[in-house]
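Annotators were shown the component list below and the corresponding predicted structure, then asked to write short factual statements about the assembly.
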Amino acid sequence: MKYIPVSNHQSVDLKLIPQLSYSEFRDVNVDLLFEAPERHCVNYFGVELDGELHLFSCIADDNSHEVNVSSTVVNPSVEYHSLTALNHNFENFEREISENFGIKYSDHPWLKPLRYPKNRFDQSSSIANHPFLRASGEELHEVGVGPIHAGIIEPGHFRFIANGEQIMHLEMQFGYQHRGIEDLFLKKRKLIERITLAENIAGDTTVGHTTAFVNLWENLSGFIPDYSLDFSRTVALELERIAIHTGDLAAICADIAYQLGNSVYGRLRTPIVNFMQEWGGNRLAKGLIRAGGINFPFTSELSLRLLEILKAFEAGFNEMSGKFFKLPSALSRMEKTGVIKYDQALEIGTVGNSAKMSGLMRDIRISHPFNLYKTAIQHTPIIKHHGDVYSRVQLRREEIWQSIGYLRTLMKSLPDSTTPPNWQLVPEPDKFIISLVEGWRGEICHCAITDSKGELEIYKIKDPSFHNWMALAQAVRNNDISDFPICNKSFNLSYCGFDL
Amino acid sequence: MLENFKIMWHQGKQYIPDVTTAIVPGIFRGRPVISTVKFDEAELLEICPTKAINATAIGSGDDENHTAQSLVSIDLGKCTFCGECASRFPEKIRFTKDYKISSNDRSRLIIREGDDSPIIMNSELIRKEIHRLFGKSLKLRQVSAGGDNSCEWELNASNNVQFDMSRFGIDFVASPRHADGIVITGPISENMAEPLEICYNAVPDPKIIILAGTDAISGGIFADSPAINRHFLSKYPIDLYVPGNPVHPLTFINGVLDLLRKV
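Structure shown to annotators:
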């Protein structure tokens, strides 16, 4: 076997993962992607084990519902052919490997620093001195935006090359948000510390990332969560989806100067996040998701309250959407703006809504189901085909409807509300585990490897934004620079989730 | 047109009439209260992810009347409000729904055992020009420096139709040149240290600094990460600390209003 197929959050013995020569490893992984569009790279990373640099590649197969894992050992002083030269899905991953370990690639088309982490191999590289693509010509000019942006938003730098008002090229530079989270996962040994870290990877995806962590941690420790835990995570994930999608619709209205939509969608988000607070004491669900237990069981009172809130929400949401989605002045800003075609999405390897907007089916809830998505909820992904701002906006509206439906289904089979015991979770030694969760942005992937004592050798986090930022960069090409805000907001990607 | 009016009519009154007395729904974790019940603190200290809980020894054990004991305190500047301590030791720690937990005095964020009084400003530390210059209009530039987008999210919410902070003349502006101060979120990543300082220097004097959220106040869970650089904070005076993870919009609005109020 050239790779080992593993299921979502099922740990495997590290020694069972085939170790190939680099050239074979390269061929196997590139071929896997070329053979079928339902395969995509969910993680590819380097880790030093026993003094050697190992690379692990994880290619998800959405049809077989498994992830094909293979590995190789590389020598940082040797120059290698890149996988990116053959398939762009690997681009950011190889940039990261190169930045962290100093691996040199002879044919990587875009081998630039990725996020300027504290422990980068080349300490002489500096975030203030990023090697941007330059273009010259009398008609071209550059526009630099950030790292600090106009609104209350995270930092990142955008560099446009524009011809008049038209964007020719956009390059994004990240790293400003880098907090060294992956290293802290190793340094901090207490479970509560690690959960707190997971909650802070991206605060707008608290439930998504924390669920990825606890699913991973429980299975790594041989603990099988009961129905009540799966239930609370599934409910929280769908609530988070409704809340953020609604907020995004408000923000998109703001960007096209549609005040009514901005105000109404903005106020509609409040009862959803306030329900999170009624349930777990925090509007963004921090403190809610825990490994091996839950501090705030979902009670029948909460269920009645949620159904009441959803009913009121739905009425307001439908009324506003009935207006907004028929408004010619709004539609003219959204239709055919910021287009990504199917082939582009496939080449970039986008995930979540940034794939489903272009007809590319990428949704972990159906392809690698977890928690209640394989049982109580039979998920059918919503797919759009135009890949424009309007497709992304439509996806949000329809996913909100869908999530409301899922929540109503879940409310019909409430778990026993007694607090489950807080189990002591002890990770097993010499294991590899991958945990995939569909957050509201798309596929979240956490990987861990344990040593012979069960301690973490590596904890690897991948936010969907890691893939999807490139889609935004491509989408704005040939658009007016004034349409950048609405394009950006329609993707709503994470800076801290990327920078870690 | 009629449709628009209908939609507007159906929203009813969304704004919170009095943001100083509003009651938040559910089981919000605001100002904690620590009971004087005695028990082994070691486990309590162990459970906190950010070492926000402390136990200070009082009485040496040599004392005639007392055996060795200690006073438990929680530092809201370090607390992530995860509620783990209150879940495990409800007889010792309980979180109230009191969201007015901001102060300009860092030491007032430390809640001591048996203390159930509101957190207030230290009026002696408020610079005299703040009320005169910013009492009726305060423009703020927000800088996220490693913030996880949760505090940023809540600061945005501070000006939605419900919280409506701009009714008090408090607004977020795009340019530091138009600002009277900055609001920092996040533990201050090393890669943001320089842009933060450049932004602060671009704000005309006199100016204020507000730290919003546990990460900004103490570094939170990232406090001992080598990838953060909090040097900026030791160079300039901090005018307001707003605890929370993330900060609740009402915590932020009340904190700023208390800072601006005439003393």
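Statements collected:
1. The CA atoms of residues 75 and 107 of chain B lie 8 Å apart.
2. Chain B touches chain A through 69 residues (CB under 8 Å).
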